[in-house]
Amino acid sequence: MSDLSGKRVVVIGGSSGIGYRVAERAAAEGAQVVIAGRNAERLQQAAAALGAIGAHQLDAHDHAALEAFFSALDPFDHLVSMVGDVMGGGFLNADLAVIRHVIESKFFTNVRIAQLAAGRLRAGGSLVFTSGTGGRAQDACASFVGNLGINALVEGLAAELAPRTRVNAVSPTWTLTPFWREMPAEQKAQIKARFEASIPLRRLAEIDELADAYLFLLRNDFITGQHIAVDGGIMLGA
Q1: In total, how many domains does the chain have?
Q2: CA-to-CA distance for 111 and 117, rounded, in angstroms?
Q3: Is the dihedral of CA 68, 58, 100, 19 positive or negative?
Q4: Would residue 66 count as lying in a domain?
Q5: In-domain check, residue 14
Q6: Would you say residue 233 lies in a domain?
Q7: Which parts of the chain are beta strand (E)?
Q8: How far is CA 158 from CA 19, 97, 150, 167, in A?
Q9: pLDDT value for 238
Q10: Which one of 31, 114, 227, 232 is CB 3.0 to 4.6 Å from 201, fit for a cystine?
Q11: pLDDT value at residue 182
Q12: What's the pLDDT at 36?
């Protein structure tokens, strides 16, 4: 297993939630951390707490801004992307614009991240994307398609970038994180109860259990082209 000490780790979506915890854990292991996020206030607070060597306000869905971000980055060893919006519901009643947005966010934005990151990624490094698990197409249509896209992206990139670098993904199921900060409390409680009833382990993941998977993929030099589900076995009965 590789040591993260002295490695430069970029986390897009690193100012809160799972991404912040990945950055925090990497920094604790001696990594030089660069974070990017949309909210300026959260970004600056996170950067100060982490001792980050770089903090960039960035909406990754703006591909011109994304290109400028990577142009300004020094070469790095690892990149973690938390990028990807979500939606619930099936295809028939969904707004087509919402379906397009979520697939654009989840899949095409990460394709562009990969294209831009590949030229800055040092030999022996890795890319880790965020896929997802816990639903079917009829329950979360665009999210489901986007997750399939991420998994295909990871497999394709792993072959294209080998043997110089590695590419993997972590697939969490629904987890109570700051990502859902704007959702009404009652709705969050209902979703939490539903997932706890569906997950064989009868609970949601802790953020550290998810962060562990990202860090494992950063460190393990013999894993590539994989998407690891950290979902408590929710798909076993689906």
Answers
A1: 1
A2: 10
A3: positive
A4: yes
A5: yes
A6: no
A7: 8-12, 32-37, 54-57, 76-81, 121-130, 166-172, 226-230
A8: 22, 31, 12, 5
A9: 58
A10: 232
A11: 78
A12: 98
Using one digit for the tens of pLDDT, what is the confidence trace for 114-159?
Answer: 999 999 999 999 999 999 998 899 999 999 999 999 999 999 999 9
Handedness of CA 60, 66, 72, 73 (dihedral sign): positive
Residue 154 forms part of a structural domain: no
Give the count of beta carbons closer than 10 Å to the beta carbon of residue 41. Answer: 10
Kindly state the tokens that stand for 154.
């990871």
CB 3 within 8 A of CB 14: no
> Interior CA angle at 83 toward 87 and 47, to 5°?
130
The mean pLDDT of 167-193, rounded to a whole number, is 87
Closest CA to 32 of 48, 14, 9: 9
Q: Which residue has the tokens 């206030």?
A: 41
Give the gyration radius of the chain's Cα atoms. Answer: 17
Q: Locate 51 and state its tokens.
A: 């001792």
